[in-house]
Write a structure and sequence with these properties.
This protein is α+β, with helices and mostly antiparallel strands and 292 residues long. Among the domains are: 83 residues; 111 residues. Helix content is 31%, strand content 19%. Strand 2 and strand 3 form a beta hairpin. The chain starts with 11 loop residues before the first helix and ends in a 9-residue tail after the last helix.
Amino acid sequence: MPPPEGVRFQFRAVMKRRDDLVMKVNLAGDYLDQPFADERFQRYTEEVRKLFSLKQELKKGIMDVAAPYYGRPLREPELEELTWRLAASYDLLQQGGSGQARFVLSQPEWVPLLIEDCAYTSPSQSGKTRISVTFRLLGGRFAGLRFSQALNHVYLTRVLAPEIGFPRFSSLHHGELVQCWLGSEFNVPEPERPAIQDVYGTSVAIEHNRQLRKIRDEPCPKGYDWACHKCPVGYEYPDGCPRATHTKTFVRRPCEECRSEKAYFDPSRNDKRCVVCNARMLRGRLNIERHM
């Protein structure tokens, strides 16, 4: 179902602001792993204000967004979250607001989303395969926050994927949806329980998603001969691959389940099994080689 008339999604502008913040503020200053308080806090928020070309009286909104990180060292994960919140909150900042810092009860609203990750999770009560999809909100009252939602594998690949630009009848691996854009009616029916409802592929989102799919079908720039969704390389800056289908580059270590000495593990998760064994366990009887 399309969003109400007049609703507009910003994808490219948010991504550009995020990149500008990383290159022109985060990397240019001494913020990473440093106490985020006093002079450093004031300097950071002022640099953001100037980068966004906001009036001085609107700086309070920037400070409100940055306030949850005040007084403690800005580690890489915290700096990344702050960067996303600022980049996605631009429209709110222009209006003198700052958005919500956590998910509270809210009414449905249409928002632009980025799919950051897709991974197998525990099956449904009826035994159906489910995927934990991590979304990043690129607008709305919760701009910049991210959340995960378990979705039925069939819904994800046969309903959501075609809506945002993928062929309706194709052997799609859920990892191919990572880094895709979409619009969605978003809701928080219970505190800290956000969820998407209807989804919609805008022309800009579909163009981006099809271009991403196209470059993933091209020869690998690193010289690998496997499909992108089977590649251990992640997309995380600075050494990642823009075609990658998961965040962090997998690391190798022994797996007690399959007895492999050099099995791949996802460093962003605390799995005791390697990625192949973990997928096998969560998928049950599905073909392991096809969906590695």
